[in-house]
């Protein structure tokens, strides 16, 4: 190959690369800063986010869609540093699941001054451009109402595993569950303890409760992360009567609903949420007007038989319920609801 | 008896050379990491990013300097992170009830010192394990923080209280010159006073120091109190940085501080180490954390990389010390 032909080839390649770059002169860079990645929900969430980035980038070749996520591993200081560094990088959209929203107020203003769209995740912020919320109180209420309707009218003892003290999302879920339970008189809360979103602490709590309350009828949790050890401990102790009421829509938990002891779950699903983030960012980028407080669609999950039974016992008919198969399908395949087809 | 207290000049020279070598290695790693990260992302050397980097490690600087004193005695202080949350809570509550920022500062530092003094008395006077005592106060201080905050954050708007942690001169955070002043003051204390010589003596050989009348048990109490006071100062900086008092602030700070101090060449067994090494250790640690975020490194890999760097430096340290001893 001569020098001339090498130069010509270089020019052709350069032109081709240049035209490729011109074809993607529009860009959408999304960053998701999460408080941690300790639970199966987080893993599914981040995986859904990454899959959605790839799918949207492929489906819309005229826009270079990129994204990355960061985990603060529960440390407020680390999260603030990550946020400051990210703002300096100037992405288009930032999803921030703040450990404490008060601590992030100065950074919201800083991001907005840099032209970044700030989306507060789970805990709403007035100052944010958008808040992506879960409707935790309503979801908790639905879990509580389902418990009432499926408790059979007899005296019913339940123990509730809570989130980390002071965490707004965990406290909202807790308040909702209590509100739902208050609709019936037979359900009695015998214990409540924070498990700090930690499955090991949940395991200890479940062991203690099953010993301390031999007549315990149900364990309710503000996350499915607590259900894994609780179900295992009940199974190991031969307790096949106790019921479980979950929250998150983790696939392995929902798979234990048909003929199992898991009676109800709230279909957040990390995968769905990750996909919904990218869909939301894309819609904002396209100039679509969204509600400032964007509620993630989170139906209650019941088996068909339990739904029928619950309706007979006064469960509100207007609560959106997904049956297990449908819930498992959308939980596994986030693109069904939030993929590129949903915005085309 | 004499042989146990006589300083071997050759060994002392070797130890000094070992530390110097460590500092050169650290400085080299700092340069290497900076160049590498700046090649990966041109924003690394931007003034804004340098300001972010310095602000993010200011608290770690303060806590790590206290941890250096503690580790020079062969001890460890696992309570510093929780103590930052507790001392911040006391300071913020004082501020909100009295409206006085100076009183808030004072009580935050005194609260931090109180936890440190408890550690010191149990470890220095009662000769209990530093690991177990500070593990207990680690839980105790976090629990106290949650109780006094009622587990929720408290907004702070007093400009005086927020000044140290929240103000910047251009891109340089005010807290950095402050940290430098603390470094100078602690260096004088460690290298130019009898107290500093007692710190090294307590770490090199507690019993010998006792026989020589250096009162190491009293020194240990004061060292942990100093570590607590620095945790109190860190609490003030933290509150200023986030404009609020946070019951969960300082989480895992003790691990970062211990990592930085070990990186800086302070011996886990006491008696060897300098504040300069800790400063370099904190700087290297901060650069790595900042660079990993800036380069978009997969978060799953970040802990792995940090762990490998620490392990590498510890191995290098062991190797260079062995080389000097041979």
UniProtKB/TrEMBL annotation, chain A:
- The residues forming the signal peptide are 1-23
InterPro entries tied to this protein? Peripla_BP_I (IPR028082), SBP_2_dom (IPR025997)
Query: For this UniProt entry, what is the primary localization, expressed as one broad class?
Result: other
Species name for this entry? Answer: Yoonia tamlensis
Its name, as the record gives it, is Substrate-binding protein domain-containing protein
Output the SUPFAM superfamilies linked to this UniProt entry.
Periplasmic binding protein-like I
One annotated GO molecular function: carbohydrate binding
Domain Periplasmic binding protein residue range list: 30-289
Q: Where in the cell is it found?
A: Cell envelope
Q: Which GO terms describe its cellular component?
A: cell envelope
Family from the record: Belongs to the bacterial solute-binding protein 2 family.
State the UniProt keywords alphabetically.
Signal
Automatic annotation (TrEMBL), chain B:
Q: Can you list the GO cellular component terms from the UniProt entry?
A: plasma membrane
Subcellular location field:
Cell membrane
Membrane topology term: Multi-pass membrane protein
Molecular function in Gene Ontology: transmembrane transporter activity
Taxonomy, superkingdom:
Bacteria
Its main localization is membrane
Q: Which of UniProt's keywords are assigned here? A: Cell membrane, Membrane, Transmembrane, Transmembrane helix
Is Ribosomal protein one of the keywords? Answer: no
Q: Give the stretches traversing the membrane.
A: 20-40, 52-72, 84-116, 128-149, 169-191, 220-239, 251-269, 276-294
**Keyword Transmembrane tagged:** yes
The record's section on InterPro entries has: ABC_transp_permease
Protein name (database record): Ribose transport system permease protein
Q: Which organism is it from?
A: Yoonia tamlensis
